[in-house]
Queue: 4 jobs
Job 1
Amino acid sequence: MSTNSQILDAVKDRDLASKQGILQKLFAVWFDAFIYNQIWEDPRVDLEALELDKNSRVLTISSGGCNALNYLLSEPESVTAVDLNRHHIYLLNLKAAAVKHLPAHEQFFEFFGVGKSENADEMYKQFLAPNLDEGAKAVWDKRIKIFKKGGLYDHSRNGYFLRVFQRFARLIGCRPDAVLNARSLNEQASLYRKNIKPFFNNFLIRLVGRMPVTLFGLGIPPQQFDELTRETDAETTIIDVYRERVRRLACDFPIEENYFAWQAFARKYDTEKRKAIPEYLKDENFGKLKSNIGRLRAKVGSVTDEIKTQPHGSFNRFVFLDAQDWMNADALTELWSAIAEKAEPNSRLIFRTAGAESPIKTRLPQTLRENFVYERDASDRLFKQDRASIYGGFHLYILK
């Protein structure tokens, strides 16, 4: 089965001849490409929910691969990263090869912290290409030039999307990156009101923001757009939902360490102070990352298939990103039935949703749902701590 077909199967919940079905088909075509150059789920929140220890065996959807590497810093027994999008696995494979084979942290940071290097071609040919699998090598042989042309964080479809909107913001007199210079939360709020909030009042933004295809650039499928619209009412539009989430991103967490805000507003990390960067990129963590990289396994595929085909007890920590929003009731039932059958008691599962509510409440049969405990208080508390701020809900379940 082609990657495009697998993605369509994952997002399809309507007749392909319907309006929603056509949008889902378009999204599947769009998503079969290099979408994310970094992950948009906060690992600090994940790690508190997962409670990783030396016996933890993590199964996670890869996306940009950052959090799979972040989890390794807690020294679990294993981390398995899967993704239907082969380009994300190729990026994670490149990162893993870089951890293992680049001479020192500084070269690693050039590639994935700065996102560009004048010596990218030479380092790739000497240290990385010989240590990649055939599929990843074929792609990166052609793509390695992005590390010299613009840089990693200017590329990927998510990167292109952010670049377009940041340039448009400047054309209408907004400067989203100004908030990165703030020295306090009060100053962040002031700079947000001046340089970001007016962006959402622009006629063109209010027009295109109502179109589901606009959010394809953020990797948001049509059914997640529908979830977002459910938060609207007579007085609240979808634009208001976007604006509030961007406000949280810009104002609710210290900008000096919120690397999600740096990427959203400037497509970069703080490469000078190196505080607003993921933990896996920090110099003081490189030795531990290098010593644990052998515990990582990455492969193209679905979490459901991975659980069903592995022995009982292979995983006891599950990270589903926002995939539960993508799945219809049958797909969710298949996935959670596999977990109930194959996982050990007290396994912990986390995911995020576009809206506030967990789809598990309404889409799973009650007899299956009764196998899991929903940690609502912890979920609500951790949601408020998520620095990425792009989702409407965070959810933690524990297998009885």
Job 2
Amino acid sequence: MTLFSRSLAAITAVMLIGGCASNEDALWTAVDAQEQTAQGSGATQNQGPPLLGTGNFEPGGVTPFVPTGTAVGERVQGMRSDLTGIQTSISSQNASLQNLRSDARASANIYHKPIGNITARLQVGTTPANPELVAQWNQAQEELGKVDNSIASMNSLANDVSATSSRATYLLNSIRATYRLSGAVDEDHRQLEVLEDEGNQTVVLIDRLLTELTEDVARASNYLVSERANLTAMSTAIKNGDYLGGSLATRAYGTPPPPPPGGGASQFGRSQPLVVIRFDQPNVNYEQALFNAVSQALERRPQAGFDLVAVAPGAGSQAQTALASNATQRNAEAVMRSLTNMGLPPERVSLSSTTNPQSSVNEVHVYVR
């Protein structure tokens, strides 16, 4: 017995019926109400600003040397100037990193303020497409775009630091090779030892800078992807004037199993659907209950996939059946767009169609695999 064949007793099975007289008729779920409330409150948690590094990578400087008058001494002085130039580059790149971190954190903090306001308004309910929330959403999107710009600048900075690292490594190898040159005095080798130590310290500092910068880019990029998904889900919630929850992308992990042979339509009449949406009126408000059902399914099985089946009435003339099939297909495509807007990755959803002579209205069935 599969996980969702037992869903009537312990998992989740949701029936959405448009145009019915009562709430009890409109929505039926086997999920315990107390459990559903607890999971719903967990879904509202948004992560804060990205956790960027705190390292400060300021070089220690280069020891001044007294010219010895030898050819090797002149070479040492030239390499000392090269190391000074490299450390100047590192100091500038470190300052750029600190500024980019500060900008990213500031933009993220500003971003979360309208997001918090929107969430609070949606949780108590508001008008569909409330212009105040739309304006706040646009502000949030603008600030998230600034975080994106900071990430692009960090990537560019990482390329610059990599180039500096190559220069430093080349210089360190040149310093070591200079020991083998003839015509040096003892002071030349003493200065070479000091220069080699400071070159080694510089290379280590650059490696630390590049490592932390790379980690910052990865963390900020993951944050950006997650918040973009949440922002997309929030646009759907604003459109409906009702809070849905965080993006479904944060609940989906692993690789979903492939659709069954014949697609999701092969499950019709054989498996219990997670959701049934009946389109018996022009505007069926199904997104909140659909989000809750899919969210809870993913919390129990993060690698799950979902099969949408457009079920058209099979009675009537051939022309009537064709019209119903086309309308049901469009309804299923709308449900699929809703799921992707909620953050569900498109590769986790399949779409197929069938007819049902016993059905009198267009329906969309959602199955879990």
Job 3
Amino acid sequence: MTRVALLSRKDELVKEDPNFDRKKFLYYLSRTDYQKQWGKGYRRPGAGTRVLAWFLKIMPKIGPFRALQFKIPTSQTEDMYIKSVDLTVEDFQTLLRRADGGALRLENRDCDTGKQTSPGEYRLSDQTYARLLDKLAEHDFVQVSPELRANLLSYYADPQSRLSSRQDRKEWAKIEKELDRLRANPVSAAALP
């Protein structure tokens, strides 16, 4: 893809940076190094893929094909991107240091929406809680920490919440049975920190 971008947009790249160097633009990795790092599962693009790529290249970028139009980012956009990557790396290093020191406390936030995790707020969160409850029930809630137990019971506590799992009667009946088992199951000594 990098070579395709280089071939099709070389004039624009050179115009933006008169000292443009092709070797700095391309990232070279030998096949041996690639296979050591990522395995031998790479499949070369076949004839169908090449025909599709050619078709998309000649297709006018109007209507539904407008999304395929390639635009070189402005220097301001590049700066914003680089700053966001730097900030992400700094945050990640901070979290690693906290985890290494045993002081890591993650908020119960939905990583997709950024909102506090709550019942019915996001369908995938509801499904994840249901799967977690199901997996823990498979092992009779052995070694469930008091914090996790409280979190699960709190998540399902509000009978008025709009949980997506309530729409499927069989699924909801299963969740209610597992919640009853969780409530009846005392916290084991093995689960205590």
Job 4
Amino acid sequence: MMVWLPYDSVAEVTTRLGILPEVVQFDVLADNRLPISGGEVVEWVALPNYSAGKVVAQMNWDELPQLEWLQLGSAGFEHIIDQVPSRIGVCNAAGVHDAGTAELAIGLALAALRRIDRYAVDRLSETFAPVYTDSLADKRVLIIGCGHVGSAIERRLMGFEVASITRVARTSRTDPQVHAVADLPDLVGQADVIFLSLPGSDSTQKIINADLLSRMADGTLVVNVGRGPLIDTDALLAEQGRIRAALDVTDPEPLPPGHPLWQAEHITWTPHVGGRNRSYETRYAALIRAQLGRLVSREPLLNIVRSPQ
């Protein structure tokens, strides 16, 4: 069995994955480039996270006749799956990014509420200007998106003594209670902090629009660690002075020079770094090891988002 792995050397494979099963032969995607040989027999490819598109763009599918599965390093798959022939199955990395992304979501909320971002700027000018800030404690929280990341955010909120947590997903359910997206007009005005962790799709694009923003109470904080297009950027910019936002993702992304989001005083911002942390590396390696074991034993793979057709 031939597989390609998202590492730069054989030594890194050994460090990350340990000793692989004897039946597994591998090559590496060093510098995000395809190996110069082995394509005619490769059966499974694990892609890097942030540069998956660069690797897929190099693939001549006719030269990969035995390729049956692609393993993504991201939970999101909408940016890749349409570029892959239907004969090839696709698995995502659901669960791998939960801890890092949830940590960043909490960090962004704290930075915005406690104005850590302001103090970081003050430090550059040697300005000592403490201000009275808000707090995460006693806040009414709304989590939109109750999958892996949304659930991880909720677990981490438990230690911050928030007043309440209301959950929203694309469909409603019970135990625990989860409201449907259709209920958002009635819910957003009852929240102090809103976390967004939905995936990107046609149905979620601009789910936070001008109407929902207008229904939010003054001072509401919106934290987006899902996808940039979940929020109508123009509508958010129009709410400066009333609504705050903390964004790890933006629309457009990356932000072009001169875009108004760069200078918006009501925005706390990080450059899509939810998955850029050490926990991702170890957890993706654990998923790769698990998938290789399943390939060898002919068990169903984990995190299948599309089976070979």
